Recover the amino acids of this structure.
């Protein structure tokens, strides 16, 4: 990749472009998508959340053998067997660790001690401040537009990013939620981030490991075709389908929590991502699905984002301001 966009995050991570592929369960729970993104100049991220030790071991070896460029592993700290996963990661020494759903003091000293750059996912200025005080190297700031698990307070990325930047003015930030193209990247950098994280855009990539029906659902979705359901149960944002309709009906009618929990747990992301059940499965995706119109190779997605970013910056430089 000949293009370079220098920011605080590219400097921290040693990458050419401020483009981070989100760690997405099943979609990037192998090496294909992360390798493609890292080779294209961004940061590819392996999603360790649903992976068994043997599968993760093989994938880590494929990442190390497949590129000299930096790459990352995303680890939800709440997952079963997280300590065993951390033991494996400490052996394999990934260039970057992105941790979520837990406190950073649990892993920081161990991984920074072996040279791994540690990023922590936050959704409030308060959590950002605590993570910075703990010593993280950078933050991923997730707003309400994001797919998967958006923040319970549902503050938009634009507002949340500015609030976090004001709270922790010096730490490198990665904006996540609602960004699907180079125009969104330009906006994220203007708001104080040093990179943007792209999840839904890379769901609809050739290398994404989700079922083709899942990819078609992302491409077909409009900006208003996702719903948040499961508040109090591990809320998710997903593309509207029979599952989200049923959950919405139960939530709006004030149905019993146990019934809602059963319906919520009976549907899984695996149903949609692996088996292609886009009617009853959890088709997790962000609002930016409405900006995704095609399935492309990851390297082509990266190149398009770079061109769109250049176009956005050129447009910003054109107007004059009268003072």
């Amino acid at each position: 990749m000949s293009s370079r966009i220098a920011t605080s995050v590219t400097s921290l991570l040693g990458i050419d472009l401020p483009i981070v592929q989100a760690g997405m369960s099943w979609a990037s729970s192998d090496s294909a998508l992360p390798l493609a993104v890292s080779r294209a100049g961004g940061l590819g991220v392996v999603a360790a959340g649903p992976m068994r030790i043997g599968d993760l071991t093989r994938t880590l070896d494929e990442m190390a053998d497949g590129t000299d460029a930096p790459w990352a592993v995303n680890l939800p700290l709440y997952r079963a067997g997280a300590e065993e996963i951390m033991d494996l990661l400490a052996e394999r020494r990934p260039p970057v660790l992105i941790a979520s759903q837990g406190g950073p003091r649990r892993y920081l000293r161990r991984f920074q001690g072996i040279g791994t750059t540690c990023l922590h996912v936050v959704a409030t200025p308060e959590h950002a401040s605590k993570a910075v005080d703990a010593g993280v190297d950078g933050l991923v700031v997730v707003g309400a537009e994001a797919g998967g698990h958006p923040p319970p307070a549902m503050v938009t990325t634009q507002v949340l990013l500015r609030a976090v930047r004001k709270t922790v003015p010096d730490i490198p930030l990665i904006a996540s939620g609602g960004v699907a193209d180079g125009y969104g990247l330009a906006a994220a950098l203007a708001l104080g981030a040093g990179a943007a994280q792209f999840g839904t855009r890379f769901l609809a990539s050739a290398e994404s490991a989700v079922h083709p029906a899942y990819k078609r659902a992302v491409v077909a979705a409009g900006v208003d075709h996702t719903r948040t359901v499961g508040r109090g149960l591990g809320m998710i944002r997903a593309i509207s389908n029979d599952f989200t309709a049923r959950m919405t009906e139960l939530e709006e009618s004030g149905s019993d929590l146990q019934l809602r929990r059963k319906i919520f747990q009976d549907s899984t992301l695996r149903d949609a991502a692996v088996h292609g059940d886009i009617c009853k499965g959890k088709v997790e995706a962000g609002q930016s699905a409405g900006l995704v119109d095609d399935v492309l190779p990851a390297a082509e997605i990266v190149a398009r984002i770079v061109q769109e970013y250049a176009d956005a910056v050129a447009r910003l430089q054109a107007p004059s301001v009268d003072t």
User: Anything to note?
Assistant: The mean pLDDT is 96. The beta strands are 19-21, 44-47, 71-76, 96-100, 117-122, 138-142, 173-176, 195-198, 226-229, 236-239.
